[in-house]
Request: fold
Amino acid sequence: MNSDGVRTMARTGVPGLDDILSGGLSTGHVFLLEGNPGTGKTTVALRFLLTGAEEGEKGLYITLSETDRELREGARSHGWTIGENIDVFELVPPEALLDADREQSLLYSSDLELGEATKSIFEAFERVKPARVVLDSLSEIRLLAQSSLRYRRQILAMKHYFARHGATVLLLDDLTSEAMDRTVHSVAHGVIKLEELAPDYGAERRRLRVMKYRGQGFRGGYHDFTIRGGRGVEVYPRLVAAEHKTGFARTRTTSDITELDALLGGGIEQGSSALILGPAGTGKSTFAFQFVAAAVARGERASIFVFDEELGLLFERTKGLGFDFEHMRNAGLLHIEQVDAAELSPGEFAHRVRTRVDQAQAKTVVIDSLTGYQASMPDEKALVLHVHELLQYLNRQGATTFLTLAQHGLVGDMKSPVDVTYIADTVILLRYFEALGTVRRAVSVIKKRSGRHEDTIREYHIGKGGLNLGEPIKNFQGVLRGVPVFVEDLRPVPVRSASEAGT
Reply:
């Protein structure tokens, strides 16, 4: 804390992590960063020291595992340079240096006595007098201690020593010991755990969780993160829609097709979501793209996230429908992105969508399709929760969102791979049906929370002129089942008045 009693924070500098930690790490305390080898502990630790150096603070990296050369090479892979404000101390005893004609130049840290190791650490600290310290790693200290009691006493001794000097310390633990020793969990001021998951197909997924942070609020749960050369670690905080709300005028978003807007009761309300549901080939994407083209024509910005189609093929196909998306993209009016579900975590995808809405001010967003999005999620229940939070967030930002979802089958009973109809504000249903020996297509609106809509079924065509809707289909029943029956005198169900309903 500073002289006014306000808690000061040491920023980690890792994008997204400081947001999760409500500002960073409390200065003058010891924190534990644990995770299996390869989860990114060293990268986070280096960024922590480099951020301090940028703010004029001295840093000390005490390594019992990696060499100075390895650390500097790792930093260079991300475009970083370990400068004069950061001192790298390799913990090796004087007797470890052998004759120059010997091939081996140092001993492993396990050859050190615990007391000598601790003394060397404190001497390095006294020499550098750093504000930030990284100790890598506790597994070596644990091996030297040889017992849980001795290990705990040693950790407590180091904690009190560093606290006395006001240093902010990050202890790294690679969890290589067979027994799950929770000693440091109880001693540390905060605990951050990094995890790496290996799905059945696709790239590995990384996530982190703040398991403990004394006296400080933080964003709980799991947060996806990535490690990329040239960028380091990037964390995508779990989206909580309730934290993001903006004011906007709730106008209607139209498609510029009179019949479609009439079917929707005048259009889709801004700040709502629409799910376009139907079997493969019915034109779900075309319906969504129609709203995008109309938005761009009004001078608004839009974003399309495509999971299922290659962009070159999409540009060529939609140009034949009257949508020149490639020109719109080049003019900066449309952001269109092909998403590889096997290489992307749900957290990173939500972050990309948020960026387009927050920074590019996109007011129409298309996710095509949820079927492809599901491929990036091993757990269907988690998919529904991710989609729910993302839609709630987009709604609160005044964005109109269109999602497509392919159903199994072509005619008759249809099944969806995941039921998200209850999440969407509007549900548009597309169907094939057979009539007079030809396959035709019909559209209906089966749900709209924000107002009235037509309860009719309209036939539609997709051709060179784009999307065209006809008049409501009459004298047929069973259209949505795929095999309609002509009824010469089909009368609607009479609607009773309120007084009649009460009798």
Observations:
- The chain has two domains: 9-238, 243-486.
